[in-house]
Every structure is written in C-alpha cells, then in structure tokens.
Amino acid sequence: MNPIILAIESSCDETSAAIIKNGKVQNNIIATQSVHENYGGVVPELASRAHQQNIVPVVDEALKGAGVDLKSLDAVAFTQGPGLLGALLVGSSFAKSLAQGLNIPLIGINHMQAHILAHFIEDPKPAFPFLCLTVSGGHTQIVLVRDYLDMEVIGETQDDAVGEAFDKSAKLLDLPYPGGPLIDKYAKMGNPEAFEFPDSEMQGLNFSFSGIKTSFLYFLRDQKAKDPEFIKNNMNDICASLQFSLIRMLMQKLKRASEELGIKEIAIAGGVSANSGLRNELQRLAKDKRWNVYIPAFEYCTDNAGMIAMAAHFKYLKKDFVSLDASPMPRMKF
Ligand code: KG4
Ligand code: ZN
User: Fold this and answer.
1) For ligand 1, atom 2: residue with the closest CA
2) CA 106, CA 98: separation in Å to the nearest integer?
3) Which long-range contacts (CB under 8 A, 24 or more apart) does 321-325 make?
4) Ligand 1 site: residues with CB under 6 angstroms?
5) Could you give the angle at the alpha carbon of 310 between the alpha carbons of 307 and 315, nearest 5°?
6) What average pLDDT score do residues 311-331 get?
7) Which ligand is nearest to the CA of 112?
8) Which neighbouring-strand residues pair with 30?
9) Domains of the chain (ranges plus CATH)?
C-alpha cells in the first residue's frame, strides 16, 4: 500500500497543507497569520477568517509542489482537535467536502498526537517505548509513546501551558505575540542567574506555571516602581532568567519520568521545542544521563500539516477513517 494523502492543519493560527506519498512528506506549506501580533494573543474570529482566505491557495500550492493532482489522492486528513472551534471548522469543512467530492476516505487527526508523530518524518527516529515532552501554546504534557497510535499522557499542566507562560511573560515585557521566540532571542545574550522567580511545586509528573507567572508579574511591578527603565535596561537578563526557570521546571519532571519508567529514549515536540535553551539543555542531559534525545527540525516543531500527514499515513494503514459527519473536537483527548 503506497497511499497519497493530502493533510490540512487549521487548529490555531497557522493554515497549512502537506502531501504524504508512501510515508514521505513531500511538500509542507505553512501560511502564518500575522494579524494577531498586535493583540497579545490569537483572536479566534480573526483566525477563522484568515484560514478561510488561506486554505485554497495553501492546498493548491501543496498539491502543485508535490506534483499531485486531486484525482490521484487516496485520502484527505484534517486536524479534528484540540484547537479553536472556528479555526478547526474551516479545515474540517474543507477536508470533508473534498473527500466527499472525490469519494475517498477522510482521516481525523489529533493535533497533539501529530506533534509527537512529527518524529517519524525524518531520521533519526525514536524507538518504542519513548517519552515525549510535548510543549506548545496550549499544552504541556509528558507522554508515554508505546506505538505510533498508542500513547498515554502521564503528566500534564494543571493550569497554563509553558508556551502560554512564555507568551504572557513576553506581553508583560511589551513584546509582540508570539513572545516565545523573542524571549529565546534575548535570552541568548543574557545571564540566566541574574534574577530568581519562585515557582510552585507540583506533585508527581504534573506541571503548574501559574506560580511563576505571578512571581514574574510582581517582580516586574516592584522593579519598575524603583526604575521605570528597568525592563529596557535588563531585557536580556530578564529573558535569560525566566527561560532558565521555565526549562528547569520542565526538565525536573522529565528526569523524574525517565527514572520512574526506566526509559532513556526521550523526545520533545510542539512549538516550544524550537526554543534553543531547551534544545541545549536536552543535549547536555543526553550526555549526563545517557539519554537518546530526539528533537524535530524547526519546520516540524511549530504547527504544520507535515505532522498531520505523517499521523494520517499511520491511520490510513490501519484503515482508521472517520465518517463525513465527523465534527471538530476543540478539547479532543488521545
Ligand atoms: O505548537 P505551536 O506552534 O502551537 C500550538 O499548538 O500551541 O506552539 C506555539 C507556541 C507559542 O506559545 C510560541 O511562543 C512557542 O510555541 N514558541 C516558542 C519558541 N518558538 C515557538 N517558545 C519559546 N522559544 C521559542 N523559540
Ligand atoms: Zn501545536
């Protein structure tokens, strides 16, 4: 079986389409929505409208770039959830119409599962079972991955996601959305031990980022009262210290999960895995703890349809299809 599948991603603020042929991702086209930059976060209504504008040209480009015409498609896949309802509706409606028109199977994909399966797009690929730290704007999870489609969340955040912690902190620093990449950029030039931000301890393998968010808010308020130019004069050190604390919180739980389960195959996935501090720390731990660490290429870290296509390939092989009345699931679980 050598399926050709068109995959569509529209869960948040990226409209993306990709083709997968015989398990190889061919053309991963991503249209990023810049309209949210001035609002400090994704505005759902604006996201839906931008998806509507982008979806036809993005799908067209993916098909053309891969040299595939609609008639040769074996299936259409779409992100079914989790994500913003209005945004998911654009991708799912488009995928459903296409599948119905072409009379081919429809595949519904869990976005978080796809972030993990992005590891199977390129070499090196992790061996089962492995642990995946999935870190994005909406999720922070440690997932035990037993097989391509057999995954279990063994730890997760009880409040904000780590990407949200990056973005909300960036907003307090007057940086535009999404602030994560900017914090990363300034952190490279700063001292990670310049400032301390107390965080809240969580039991087991779960995370909490609300404590550090509050201590960061109070820290800035107090410093600005003493020196109105504090942020401007200390941007690099503030970003480096904050990033250092967030990475330490992630790594504490990941180390614990690895020890408890005796698993040394360690992967990261999701938008925050693009963070250079996190990547460096994982490489350091790989040596220190003898972990085999897997980090996806930048292109497959943040939201993209290549990962949806990869997940769709595995589902196609199992004939795991959804019916044409499948609806988007904003809070979809594994
Ligand atoms: O996976 P993703 O593209 O979308 C969601 O499903 O949420 O993740 C987006 C998140 C945003 O919070 C963004 O600030 C964060 O990933 N992010 C980063 C970096 N690049 C993206 N955070 C820290 N450092 C980065 N280099
Ligand atoms: Zn994502």
Assistant:
1) 271
2) 9
3) 321/75, 321/105, 321/106, 321/107, 322/80, 322/106, 322/107, 322/108, 323/106, 324/96, 324/99, 324/100, 324/106
4) 12, 136-138, 163, 166-167, 178, 180-181, 184, 270-272, 274-275, 302-303
5) 125
6) 97
7) 2
8) 16
9) 4-116+301-317 (3.30.420.40), 127-295 (3.30.420.40)
pLDDT digits (tens, 9 = 90+) for 41-54: 888 889 899 999 99
Distance from C-alpha of 216 to C-alpha of 198, rounded to nearest angstrom: 8
Number of other residues whose CB lies within 10 A of the CB of residue 16: 29
Query: Quick one: which atom of ligand 1 is closest to the CA of 277?
Result: 24
- Could you identify the atom of ligand 1 that is nearest to the CA of residue 179? 14
Q: How far is the CA of 225 from the centre of ligand 1 (A)?
A: 31
Predicted confidence at residue 37, as pLDDT, reads 80
Residue-level pLDDT at 261: 98
Token readout for 15 is 């409209």
Going from the Cα of 252 to the center of ligand 2, the distance in angstroms, rounded, reads: 23
- The neighbouring-strand residues paired with 17 are 8, 29
Pick the closest to residue 56 from 27, 92, 100, 94 (CA basis). Answer: 94
